[in-house]
Amino acid sequence: MAFRDHLTGALRISEPTSVVTEIRERTAQSGGTAVLFENLPGSPGHRAAVNVCMRDNLARAWNFDPSELVDLMGWAMENPSDDFVILDLESAPVMECSMEPVDLTRLPIPWHYPEDRGRYMSASIVIAEHAGVRNVSYHRQFIRDSDHVVARLVPRHLTEMLDSARSDDETVSIGVVNGADPTVLLAGAMSFSEPLDELTVANTLHKRVHGRPLELVALENGIMIPAGAEYGMAATILLEDDDEGPYVDITGTVDDVRQQPVFSIDSLHHRNEPIFHAIVPAGAEHLALMGLPRAPTIKAAVSKVCECHDVVLGEGGCGWLSSVVSITPRTEEEPRAAIMAAFEGHPSMKSVTIVDSDIDISDPQRVEWALMTRWQPDRDTVILSNQRGSSLDPTRTQDGVTSKIGYDATIPLGADRKPFTSVL
User: Rounded distance, CA 94 to CA 146, Å?
Assistant: First the structure.
């Protein structure tokens, strides 16, 4: 399977759709289903897709129960592999067509919100190599002109690579990839405390889901990219910075203008009739891609202290700041221990709710019901002060400090379960 194979049941929009706000507006009306835009004036021969990497959509396409995705991703994180299949240029679907000269304005790259600086690639991953280390990560990219973008880099591994290169007055060769198989997209959204080649995690995930290793192909600059991607661009991170932002971020608030690195897009390849992946910021797919890769680390941490069944990072917390964790407590202390472990598994969180296994944690109404019928505020609440916070939390201090809260919404151990059990 490739990216386009996950669109079999997508809602197809044949009416002309402008890349300026209309893709976002129509996506908001889709109810979370995958959507394929087939008529994009200004980008003849190109299509665009949204809502591909949703929890239920991926589970259905891969024949997994949604709750199994957490364990699947956790297993891939622990078992990276590098037995890739390397294709030549003639065999790689992403190399079927080349755009000469490069002109990013001909691609169906959306201008999502009126508040944004302009057109942005929000779903394109960056594959970088420097000093023998490879990194795969997401970075929103403002289309500055026909062959340059300005990318927002947060202080993580790619920033470390770039700082090291720039200290020696060196540029960094990268590949910019759009429309990769979702196994690659999920791996690219993962973060690790130590440098780890995310493509090796994607390869393990790909083998488990599709039954064969991930296929790669080399761009002109030597960077290996997924051979079945819709678009592949050889690019260079220059020594130059430029303005990036404003931009509506995952919280729905407008992010600041900053000086950020400029990428030169040196070549552009794509499949026949390519499908551009367009993640709408603060939309359901954006929240899913933020939250899905965090769930395995939370579950792994909680599983060390109790029996943990599933983890969901909800849309209300932007797929990042809050989670609901399903457990089966064996002692009175385990729900509180689960709260503390969940924060250790994902330190950026601000809120954790612990529930019993009979609660559908993907249903916010059922989670709230568990809180209102099983949680006693003065007994079942954990409040932590002076904690490391997330940059997405506008209430944090200038030093990045916040407070956090945990809710124990499990049935008291040893209690008669009947009064706490819904027949609905």
Answer: 20
Catalytic residue check, 249: yes
Domain ranges of the chain: 3-289, 294-414
pTM for the predicted model, two decimal places: 0.90
Mean pLDDT by 10 residues, the chain (424 residues): 90 96 93 93 96 90 87 93 96 97 98 97 95 93 98 91 94 97 94 82 96 97 97 98 95 93 98 97 90 91 96 90 97 97 95 97 95 97 94 86 97 92 84
Q: Distances in Å between the alpha carbon of 64 and those of 29, 70, 72, 132, 186?
A: 27, 11, 9, 36, 15
Give the DSSP letter of residue 212.
S
Class of domain 3-289: mainly beta
CA distances from 397 to 347, 388, 389, 403 (A): 16, 10, 9, 10
Q: What is the CATH number of domain 294-414?
A: 3.40.1670.10
Annotated catalytic residue within 147, 181, 197, 249: 249
330 C-beta neighbours (distance < 10 Å), count: 10
The tokens for 169 are 């007055």
Phi-psi region of 417 (alpha: psi -120 to 50; beta: other; left: phi over 0): alpha
